[in-house]
Amino acid sequence: MGTLKLPLFLLLCSGLFLILITSPCFLVVVVESKYIAYNTSSGIDPGKLNVHLVPHTHDDVGWLKTVDQYYVGSNNSIQGACVQNVLDSLVPSLLADKNRKFIYVEQAFFQRWWSDQSDEVQEVVQELVDSGQLEFINGGWCMHDEAVTHYIDMIDQTTLGHRYIKEQFGVIPRIGWQIDPFGHSAVQAYLLGAEVGFDSLFFARIDYQDRAKRRAEKKLEFVWRGSRSFGSSAEIFTGSFPEGNYEPPRGFYFEVNDDSPVVQDDINLFDYNVQDRVNDFVAAALSQANVTRTNHIMWTMGTDFKYQYAHTWFRQMDKLIHYVNLDGRVNAFYSTPSIYTDAKYAADEQWPLKTEDFFPYADRANAFWTGYFTSRPALKRYVRMMSGYLLAARQLEFFSRRSKGPNTDSLTDALAILQHHDGITGTEKQHVANDYAKRLSIGYTEAEELVSVSLGSLPATSNDESQRSVTKFQQCPLLNISYCPASEINISKGKNLIVVVYNSLGWKRNDVVYIPVINENFTVHDLEGKEIESQLLPIANAYKDLRNYYVRAQLGKAPAKPPKYWLAFSVTVPPLGFSTYAISNAKTTGGSSTKSSVHRFKRNEQGTVEVGHENLELTFSTEQGKLTKYVNHATLVEESVEQSYIFYSAHNGSKDKVIQNDGAYIFRPNGTFLIKPESPLTVVRGPIMNEIRQQINPWIHQTTRVYKGKEHVEVEFIVGPIPIDDGIGKEVVAKITTKMETNKTFYTDSNGRDFIRRIRDYRTDWTLEQTQPIAGNYYPINLGIYVQDDKKELSVLVDRAIGGGSIEDGQIELMLHRRLLLDDSRGVAEALNETVCVVDKCKGLTIQGKYYYRMDNLGEGAKWRRSFGQEIYSPLLLAFAEEDEEEWRNSSTRTFSGIDPSYSLPDNVAVITLQELADGKVLLRLAHLYEVGEDKDLSKPASVELKKLFPGKKIDKVTETSLTANQERLEMEKKRLKWKVQGEEPSKVARGRPVDQAQRVVELAPMEIRTFLVEFDDESFTHQSVYDS
Questions:
Q1: Which residues, in sequence order, are CB contacts of 449 under 8 Å at separation 6+?
Q2: For the whole model, what pTM was predicted?
Q3: pLDDT tens readout for residues 770-808
Q4: Which of 21, 143, 181, 341 has the most CB atoms within 10 Å of its CB?
């Protein structure tokens, strides 16, 4: 029998007690008897089928309502949901019976609620956590998506939640609970599962054909080996729910106003139904047991925003446990995924093995959830930009040692929220997408101030912030649409425009930057005052139009007169550091920057034109207006290549037997249409870059760009507004076509990390009955996609998460933009028709972006994909200030590196986190960038010297932790459950050795990410924070 615990807010009165909770949402008054009437004390019975009842709520961090609206319970005309209600009513319901249990996931909500509670309530909740009645599962800030999230963002948002839970409650989540994301990634399994220290992972959504086969073969639970590089050392026990959802069995929903029959056990009242309800329970349990191994099954007792009034659920579950166990055919009890996992482990079963991932996901025929890979491409780009910016801002926050003022917390919170599976996916309502973007903007504004002040105060040789001299720098977040007020100036006499170029990568970087300027009379000098080569390129009209409209939309006012040119120049930047460049008025009219030559071909002019720099050469047909040939003279790679655009018309399913429209989630094309170039080519040539510009049609503009010293092609596109005046939604796709024989095979990344082989119209785990030959062969792309034949590789890298595939041999396609007019009936109840309004005029969304491609000899493409992929994720950060020329020449900090000037990281290692924590410790993550066997030279162990990574600082202690830094690595490895796999023995996998505490050297094996808490001697940390280069 459960015992009654009296919290401080219980009022005893005449043998009855009143539970009173006040919140902004509501007032609850519950009247109960003074004793527990039902026996809920049962546990596992080895001789029976054990039904684990897991009470839970799934609280979306934004979807139909904003995150704040969901929390406080406003805007209920859209959806009746209030997270405060859930958590407020949960506490007294758990206190009423010590056997009751509940799991909670989303820390973005819980931390808000926790901060609103009194000390007395917090004490009670702490006791509920300590006793195991309330358990934190998954534990991230949100339940992140697994298709279009970057692995660094997945780590960051999970770390934010895990460290909060550890600091507040002293507990460590041990179960993954990804119940709602629309397909599941290999990176989730091994990195955000095993490497976090989870013992198991549970989810709901896998392909309907896959689920049917697994049910028939009792393979809904298995061991998932997501990494080729780590093998059995990073596998995880995984359970997929049998009905493809995370709800209770039909007929067992007990929210207020739910239509499931309650257990009516008062013999004096009509409709007594105890035996009927027990029979229903046993039948549902046996049905699930028929598709599940061992004598343990889990019932997920809850769903979206349930337990608004928790007592209604617990009252019915109390009765069910009591009467089902009296019946005796099965054993029911309150449980959690942790208890369930331990029971499965104790069964000592050998489990089926799963490799690779669970993409793409379809929930029925003609319904592939592959549209959201691209939905809301501008928001996806915004997230990726802010992710790279946060990484750099945290580094500067550490280097500058600023303990007061602006920080990165707000941007960290916003980015964590955006990883939600109805956030970055683009499957939320428009007003919610607007709210997400606002949060990113607010976070960026504060981080931008931090970055500006930090760059102006480095090196930080004094701990007294008031004594530091600071140059205030400006930044240009709208540089992609040629808007940068800081560079669009008439430089004052005797002054320079100083450009600080920060590199957040751990190796020296040579690159090209270009900024908008208002005239041609400029000279560029490097940090030594030496004049360097620069190039002026006229700004295309397409960018001027984009700038004028979107700056007004962003700022509420028209921008100044548009700049005339891009000013491009080459830069060299030290690792984790910056270089400065000075732009000054030229001493002679016309300036010293080289003006690009511009040649515009006539329409249908016959012939070809070659553009290139050094080794790389592209040939275009001037008559057809398209690329025809790719040649790299250094590697002797030569291939016929065509680049083109198409659009898919969106399917209207209103006349289908089973209605299925194309929508925010679902990609269902209904026809393919080639977009022929309508305007002739314009060729722009200069010493630093060459360009081919094309106005493909009135709503697509493209620039193909090749750089001096680079051997890849950059394609910059402007797409939109997509026309819908014909009443048909459209999805715009860029295609690259070769004559390579690729045998239906291509490779896409998993969350920017591992590459996974894909075979057209094929699934590893079951025989696919293909209903959508295009949508059913689309996969998420965060880093890139490549194809290969027996001689060559073609690789394409992207600047944001998008969908794509290889629908024909030798071809790669990327979906860049979608504009749709119908809802796809997956809950959002809104068409994906994004518009941007200025005053009372609204247009369909226009996007700007880039993708990059390169061809290599077979086996040699990985180096570019990995190294340049890091450069795309971490672009150079630019900051500007107008400064007196003499002061700049005499400045001692024209260059800076946070690491030893003689050192750089190995080419196969990246710093993915360098963050000073509130307790003064430094969180450091180092990532090996290559898989086993991916590159003959770089798929080898690498070493990092921490003493050179932190020069001038005395390291007191280095503690290796789990991925989310909430427990020591050794303790995590000791605790993790090791599962048996059918027909498999554990494999020996190379891992980096323990840190050499004397030499402070970290070794990383291929694909390994190692996380450390670094503690420094206070005096060395304060007085010698950084070195000049």
A1: 405, 406
A2: 0.94
A3: 999 999 999 999 999 999 999 999 999 999 999 999 999
A4: 143
Query: Side chain identity at 81, as an amino acid letter?
Result: A
HSE-CB at 430 with a 13 A cutoff on CA atoms is 10
Instruction: Give the residue among 363, 357, 368, 374 at the shortest CA–CA distance from 813.
Output: 374
Nearest-angstrom CA–CA distance, 753 and 191: 10
Calpha distance 34→14 (Å, rounded): 10
C-alpha separations of 298 from 83, 189, 432, 871 in Å: 24, 20, 33, 45
Tell me the HSE value of 863 on the side-chain side, using a 13 A CA sphere.
13
H/E stretch holding 211 reads: helix 208-217
The whole-number average pLDDT for the span 191-204 is 95
Question: Kindly report the CA angle at 388 between 383 and 389, in degrees rounded to 5?
Answer: 95
Read off the pLDDT of residues 121-149 as tens digits, 9 standing for 90 and up.
999 999 999 999 999 999 999 999 999 99
Using a 10 angstrom Cβ sphere, with 0-12 exposed, 13-18 middle and 19 or more buried, the burial of residue 595 is middle
Per-residue confidence (pLDDT) for residue 5, from 0 to 100? 40
CA nearest to 627, candidates 551, 700, 681, 690: 681
Three-state DSSP at 620 gives strand
Helix axes 107-115, 83-95, angle to 10 degrees: 70
User: How many angstroms separate the CA atoms of 433 and 64, rounded?
Assistant: 10
Tell me phi and psi for residue 449, to 5 degrees: -65, -40
pLDDT at position 223 over 70:
yes
* CB burial of residue 567 (10 Å; 0-12, 13-18, 19+): buried
**Picking from 468-482, 513-527, 907-921, which range would have the lowest pLDDT averaged per residue?**
468-482
The residue type of 310 is A
Question: Could you tell me the CA-to-CA distances from 756 to 233, 718, 779 in Å, in that order?
Answer: 19, 30, 10
Sequence-ordered list of residues with C-beta below 8 angstroms from that of 314, at least 6 positions apart, any chain: 55, 93, 96, 97, 100
The C-alpha atoms of residue 153 and residue 144 are separated, in whole angstroms, by: 9
Label residue 461 by pLDDT band (50, 70, 90).
Answer: very low
pLDDT digits (tens, 9 = 90+) for 249-271: 999 999 998 999 999 999 999 99
Integer distance in angstroms from the first to the last C-alpha of the chain? Answer: 70
Task: Report the alpha-carbon distance of residue 698 to residue 677 in Å, rounded.
Answer: 10
